[in-house]
């Protein structure tokens, strides 16, 4: 068996190596020639998988180690009898970690805290649903908009998008890219909706860049400059709009889902899917792939407000400001496209909040359920600190 895989998918050698010959390539170099004699293709979101790619190949299986599937023409695969799998939910926790890190950062810059705001979650699936749960558990008022779910489950618990825009001062967009149809999300945030945002609104997009009209957002930011934009995904990646990028408060290169845990979970999901489809034994457990985190314990005692304690724990695991700064540096040095892609290549080291156990001293014991709600593991046994020694 010949397996062609994007070189930036971790865990491929362990999971797939013994099934055949592996060829690792940069995602943007995977073309029809590269897959001509391949049986299996493993991609990320940057490889367009369409009829032109697969037509002259002997491919029998394509797996994308991503949640999003908008880069894959599944009809073309089905019509050629090529099996397909994606990795729903694989990096949803990581995206929520990044959203929390981003919102806490903007709150700090503006001298406010998140419980003074109402958050609207648009697209309440694996990512948005987890975000809603974590924010609600932290006592933050949230509204949800998800017309397909409202249609299937009933309107209770959901509002329409324009109501959400009118009532929320933080809006988090987590929809897939759906080009057309009843629930189309292409430019879901168009000129009219971006203009309708109240001054001081924070608008975050971690779904797909094309769900938001970047030109309209740039107009609002340039003319009025009265809203705060947080973008992880962009139109025309990697050649993103420099003028927009310069006006975005937290600008990251489509890395919200980039935790090592999420990436390895994706690889393992595709490995499992291929084994199931082809009736092969599964010899590798997910736990085998994940190394212990570099930072596994953090000891916290009194002296901090709950929000300060949360911010400290969040930044110990994932400080979104570093990704913002890295992108700025890379784009200045290498130009937008190469800088953007460069930040998305290579080893991912970031871990998820749950890999950090927060050990709470007596003066911080009250924070146990608060930090657990944010996603951390908690160790509650009382710690005797020097400070408490009489
Ligand atoms: N930035 C990143 O790194 C990153 C990481 C993971 C996923 N994503 C993107 O986020 C998207 C969502 O991920 P997910 O795992 O939650 O997917 P999901 O399929 O579990 O959930 C998507 C939700 O959006 C809803 N939806 C569909 N059309 C809608 C509309 N018109 N208005 C409002 N809601 C609508 C669906 O009903 C569903 O509940 C993915 O498709 C992917 O494109 C980005
Ligand atoms: O859809 C997804 O899973 C995410 O957008 C994913 O994080 C994209 O990352 P990449 O394709 O670069 O691995």
From TrEMBL:
Annotated GO biological process: 'de novo' pyridoxal 5'-phosphate biosynthetic process; pyridoxine biosynthetic process
Entry's EC annotation: 1.1.1.290
Subcellular location: Cytoplasm
Location of the D-isomer specific 2-hydroxyacid dehydrogenase NAD-binding domain: 108-256
Keywords: Cytoplasm, NAD, Oxidoreductase, Pyridoxine biosynthesis
Enzyme class: oxidoreductase
Catalytic site: 208, 237, 254
Segments forming domain Erythronate-4-phosphate dehydrogenase dimerisation: 289-372
Reactions this protein catalyses: 4-phospho-D-erythronate + NAD(+) = (R)-3-hydroxy-2-oxo-4-phosphooxybutanoate + NADH + H(+)
Molecular functions (GO terms): 4-phosphoerythronate dehydrogenase activity; NAD binding; protein dimerization activity
GO CC field: cytosol
Quaternary structure annotation from Swiss-Prot or TrEMBL: Homodimer.
PANTHER family hit by this protein: FORMATE DEHYDROGENASE 1 (PTHR42938:SF9)
Record-stated family: Belongs to the D-isomer specific 2-hydroxyacid dehydrogenase family. PdxB subfamily.
Biological role: Catalyzes the oxidation of erythronate-4-phosphate to 3-hydroxy-2-oxo-4-phosphonooxybutanoate.
Protein name from the UniProt record: Erythronate-4-phosphate dehydrogenase
Species of provenance: Aidingimonas halophila
Record gene name: pdxB
């Amino acid at each position: 068996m010949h397996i062609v895989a994007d070189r930036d998918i971790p865990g491929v050698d362990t999971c797939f190596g013994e099934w055949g010959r592996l060829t690792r390539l940069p995602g943007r170099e995977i073309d029809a020639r590269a897959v001509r004699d391949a049986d299996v293709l493993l991609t990320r979101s940057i490889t367009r998988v369409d009829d032109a790619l697969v037509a002259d190949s002997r491919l029998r299986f394509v797996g994308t180690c991503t949640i999003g599937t908008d880069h894959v023409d599944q009809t073309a695969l089905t019509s050629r009898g090529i099996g397909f799998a994606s990795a729903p939910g694989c990096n949803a926790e990581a995206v929520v970690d990044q959203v929390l890190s981003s919102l806490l950062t903007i709150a700090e810059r503006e001298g406010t805290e998140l419980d003074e705001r109402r958050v609207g979650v648009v697209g309440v699936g694996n990512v948005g649903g987890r975000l809603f749960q974590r924010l609600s558990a932290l006592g933050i008022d949230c509204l949800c908009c998800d017309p397909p779910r409202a249609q299937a489950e009933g309107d209770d618990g959901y509002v329409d998008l324009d109501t959400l825009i009118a009532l929320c001062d933080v809006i988090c967009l987590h929809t897939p890219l759906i080009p057309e149809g009843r629930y189309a999300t292409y430019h879901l945030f168009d000129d009219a909706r971006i203009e309708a945002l109240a001054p001081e609104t924070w608008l975050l997009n971690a779904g797909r860049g094309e769900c938001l009209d970047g030109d309209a957002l740039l107009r609002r930011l340039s003319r009025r400059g009265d809203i705060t934009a947080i973008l992880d995904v962009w139109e025309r990646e990697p050649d993103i709009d420099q003028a927009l990028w310069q006006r975005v408060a937290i600008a990251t290169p489509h890395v919200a889902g980039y935790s090592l845990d999420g990436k390895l979970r994706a690889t393992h999901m595709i490995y499992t899917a291929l084994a199931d489809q082809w009736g092969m034994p599964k010899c590798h457990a997910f736990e085998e792939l994940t190394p212990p985190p570099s930072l596994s314990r953090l000891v916290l005692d009194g002296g901090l407000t709950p929000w300060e304690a949360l911010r400290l724990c969040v930044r110990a695991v994932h400080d979104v400001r570093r990704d913002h700064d890295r992108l700025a540096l890379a784009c200045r040095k290498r130009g937008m496209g190469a800088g953007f892609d460069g930040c998305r290549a290579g080893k991912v080291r970031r871990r998820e909040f749950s890999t950090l156990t927060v050990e709470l001293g007596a003066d911080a014991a009250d924070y146990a359920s608060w930090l657990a709600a944010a996603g951390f593991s908690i160790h509650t046994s009382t710690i005797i600190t020097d400070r408490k020694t009489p």
